[in-house]
Design a protein that fits this description.
Length: 464
């Protein structure tokens, strides 16, 4: 549904934009309540979808979505004639009343046909997600006698991972995607992750955070908007390509990411690090996220909805009074700060070796790790609070677990560990046990839920 509203621009629009923005927002909200019937009727009379194969509206939208994920050109053509494009080459959307057509082209050869067959008055050329190529076509229109030519590029955050076979791009399905470990590696146990991401405090920053002497400059609003678009619509794609993830960023402060569980986790951690650097570690411009693990055949719409609920929990989670809210991630059934997640993943990667099968050497078993995870979960009540008596007894149960054979991690062995006289594998074993036995805090429970889940997934083997 398209809702249109307008107000008369005051003389101090540029220097004091916040007042105008608030008035316009109120009018938009009022128009939404009234369903904007007249605006919709006017828009319906203006737009005319044109493709040579007479695609339905749904098929046209689907085609646009597919084309935008590939190399394509977007033209804004000022011409009163009808534009006809083969459906396998591109499509056009004609606004008859305005004498403007938007043309989406997948095959570059179509540009020559358009230029030669139409009496174009003016054209704007946009390359999608390819800023380095945007100058190549401008000369063709200028040499054809069209003097009013402008050009540039547009970014869309919608990268999809693909494989090139016989010179053609083959987009990965979710089953293939769930097996990816990095760009070229593969997981023993495939599992999909879906992440919903939200930019914290963005509305408040635009409304109040840019004020100077009680006024918000339109220049500042536009500059911040442009920089955020460049980050989420351009750099977002580059990071998704590195970690083989599907992404959708439709603007504003919300994004959707899908990939294998390990790739989405690494993508999320790197994105947070880079976004903090991009914002100069601003404490109020942060990210909140929900990450859901699911089978590759799980309905993606439901997965997105479930991940959105996890994201909302992360955004609204109440940390201790000394810890600011938001800037958090909900993963592995726990909500933690980004810095905490990064630290625990590094520990999990360090301890992972202890649960890999090694010939002639007995490591910890995965069943023991399942047992530890079960013990940790029993400490947490259904409402999220901690059962303090169970938390108190947890360290004693874990002490017994590590001390019995074949592990033999006793006080004597810990003493040798403290002197740094153990071999590397034994050193890691004692380090893991010591942390679990000696930490008696609720944070330890949350931390080791991350560590145990990570190790269980990365060391799990597929039954097939």
């Amino acid at each position: 549904m398209l809702v249109i509203a307008s107000i008369e621009a005051p003389s101090d629009l540029v220097d004091n934009f916040s007042i105008t923005s608030n008035l316009l927002e109120k009018k938009i909200n009022q128009a939404k309540k009234q369903k904007a019937v007249s605006s919709l009727e006017l828009f319906g009379q203006t737009i005319d979808w044109r493709t040579s194969s007479n695609l339905s509206l749904d098929d046209s939208f689907r085609m646009i979505g597919e084309a935008l994920t590939k190399d394509c050109i977007l033209l804004q053509v000022y011409d009163d004639s009808n534009i006809e494009i083969m459906s396998d080459k591109g499509m056009s959307i004609c606004f008859k009343g305005l004498g403007i057509s938007w043309v989406l082209i997948k095959d570059y050869s179509v540009v020559d046909k358009l230029r030669d067959s139409m009496k174009i008055k003016r054209v704007r050329i946009f390359f999608i997600n390819e800023p380095e190529d945007f100058l190549n076509l401008s000369d063709k229109f200028i040499k054809a006698g069209i003097s009013d030519v402008s050009y540039g590029f547009k970014f869309f955050g919608l990268y999809v991972p693909f494989n090139i076979s016989d010179g053609k791009k083959e987009i990965y399905d979710f089953e293939t995607l769930s097996k990816k470990n990095g760009k070229d590696g593969s997981l023993e146990y495939p599992l999909l992750s879906v992440m919903r991401l939200d930019l914290d405090n963005l509305g408040a920053i635009f409304a109040f955070g840019l004020e100077n002497s009680g006024k918000t400059s339109l220049y500042d609003v536009v500059a911040l908007s442009r920089e955020l678009i460049h980050f989420f619509c351009y750099y977002f794609n580059k990071l998704a390509e590195k970690y083989s993830c599907y992404i959708t960023y439709s603007g504003g402060d919300d994004a959707f990411v899908a990939g294998s569980w390990i790739n989405v986790l690494r993508f999320a951690l790197q994105l947070n690090i880079d976004f903090k650097a991009f914002c100069c570690n601003n404490l109020y411009l942060t990210l909140s996220s929900g990450i859901l693990q699911c089978a590759s055949y799980y309905p993606v719409q439901k997965a997105g909805s479930d991940a959105g609920e996890l994201e909302a929990e992360a955004k609204n989670y109440n940390f201790d009074q000394n810890i600011p809210d938001k800037d958090a991630v909900n993963i592995f059934e726990t909500v933690v700060k980004w810095e905490t997640l990064n630290a625990q993943v590094l520990l999990a990667e360090e301890f992972q070796e202890l649960f890999e099968p090694i010939e002639n050497e007995r490591n910890f078993s995965r069943s023991m790790l399942h047992h530890i995870l079960l013990q940790l979960k029993e400490v947490v009540r259904e409402n999220g609070d901690f059962d303090l008596p169970k938390l108190h007894h947890l360290s004693m149960r874990l002490t017994w677990l590590f001390a019995k054979k074949p592990h033999g991690i006793t006080a004597d062995k810990i003493c040798i560990y403290n002197k740094g006289k153990l071999e590397r594998i034994e050193h890691l074993k004692v380090k893991l046990a010591k942390r679990l036995m000696e930490e008696k805090t609720s944070e330890m429970v949350l931390h080791y839920q991350i560590i145990t889940n990570y190790i269980l997934l990365i060391t799990r083997k597929s039954k097939n």
